[in-house]
Amino acid sequence: MFTGLIADLGAVRELELDGEGATLRIETSLAADLKEGDSIAVNGVCLTATEVDGDGFSAQAMHETLARSSLGALELGAAVNLELALRAGDRLGGHVVQGHVDGTGSVRRVREDGFARVIEIEIDPGLTRYLVEKGSVAVDGVSLTVSSLEEDGFAVSLIPETLERTNLGRIGEGSPVNIELDILAKHVERLLRVPA
Question: pTM for this one?
């Protein structure tokens, strides 16, 4: 489990895609806090560190992960949001984030709003039912508040701190982003749908 509060911006140093899946090598200062087998969220996708050294870690992404996320489209040198798994006793400063991406979105528009930046994201209209204004959403692993809602997307407003500490400060129109919706909304919908 994660909180959506990014601990470091890592850099993709290797990305091998083949018929088996993908292997990523990411450089990060968080390597000192990682060991093989640990979970780490990469742009909001929960991966397992398969190799760790002083400079970073390697992880693998299977076909299901590649189909639901934007990890396969990463380029060498790309900045990725990283978060270590939540430990018992840590503060839950964002919201409950599982690292189980529901799909990808595309940045429709980026505009300035005072010191904030508003990012409008288009998603599959079937996913918007899990969103509410002022509710939580994870975009590339970052815990954010939905500022407005459309039939086929939503907007978030980012403060300068978020723009500086995450890769969301570098994205532009057309950029793909990973979307994780509120797990509570998905469970409630299933409970209401399935007869007891």
Answer: 0.94
Q: Which residues contact 23 (CB under 8 A, 6 or more apart)?
A: 14, 15, 16, 58, 59, 60, 61
Pick the CATH number of 8-84 from 2.40.420.20, 3.40.50.300, 3.30.530.20, 2.40.30.20: 2.40.30.20
Complete DSSP assignment for 64-123: HHHHHSSGGG--TT-EEEEEEPP-TT----S--B-S---EEEEEEEEEEETTEEEEEEE-
Beta bridge partners, 153, equal: 122, 150
Kindly list the averaged pLDDT for each block of 10 residues, start to end, along the chain of length 196.
Answer: 95 95 97 96 98 97 96 96 92 89 97 97 95 96 97 97 96 97 88 78
